Amino acid sequence: MFWILKAEAAAGDPGQELLSGSLGKLGPYILKAPGTYKVGRKDSDISINDRAVSRHHADIVVGPLGPLPDPAVSGTAVDRTKAMADWISIWRPSIKVKDVSKFGTLVCDRSGTKKQSETPDRSAELNEGDLVVFLHCKVHFRLECKPIIACVSSVVESERRRQLTHNLKSAGAGVVAQWSEFATHLVVDDGAHCNDEIVAAVSAGRHLVHSRWAEALALRQTVRDVLPPEEE
């Protein structure tokens, strides 16, 4: 599971010019759990070269992944879709922004309503779709989530499965031992033959990925490193 911050600017805002200029290199920033990410003008995980941003403006804190619930599910397709959404909401980590600047940090939800933090440490919980503005920066950031719950196919040799499972978990992905509709990715290796898992994954519209994808995911080192493509 990854939280992703994407830079954007309102139509007609000077931030549009910034996005096409030097600040156009902002993000996306891909945050894995758990971790604390520094936002600031210099020497930061998320660096914003704008004098309106403090040298150390804020911290974004991502909590640990929750437990993966029991994948057993029954009922209609609509029920399964809702169950999967509920399942991911339990599993995905919390995320909050803590302001440490003299300028301030503003958070708005999807409707544009401002979230006022009442905590002594000037922090605010974030949700998917929230807009984060580091005052008075003309570029702001939209929060998205990318759930990755992988299953390494049973046709992969056992030692190789253990290695790939370790790689996926260290990269911040969730891993289930057996295929279920709650998995978002099925990982296969060279020479994999079509079986019930592959048929089920394709039928459910899930990503069928090669083991090289899992290895590339584990090689990410910074928040600027992109996620590997899911189609080869």
From TrEMBL:
Biological-process GO terms, alphabetical? double-strand break repair via homologous recombination; mitotic G2 DNA damage checkpoint signaling
| Entry-linked SUPFAM superfamilies | BRCT domain (SSF52113), SMAD/FHA domain (SSF49879)
Q: Where is it located? A: Chromosome; Nucleus
Q: Give the CC-aspect GO terms.
A: chromosome; Mre11 complex
Question: What CDD domains is this protein classified in?
Answer: BRCT, FHA_NBN
GO MF terms, alphabetically ordered = damaged DNA binding
Sorted alphabetically, the keyword list is: Chromosome, DNA damage, DNA repair, Nucleus
- What InterPro entries does this protein's entry cite? BRCT_dom_sf (IPR036420), FHA_dom (IPR000253), Nibrin-rel (IPR040227), SMAD_FHA_dom_sf (IPR008984)
Key word Flavoprotein present in the record? no
Q: Name one Pfam family in it.
A: FHA
Limits of the FHA domain: 37-134
Q: Write out the similarity annotation.
A: Belongs to the Nibrin family.
**Protein name stated in the entry:** FHA domain-containing protein
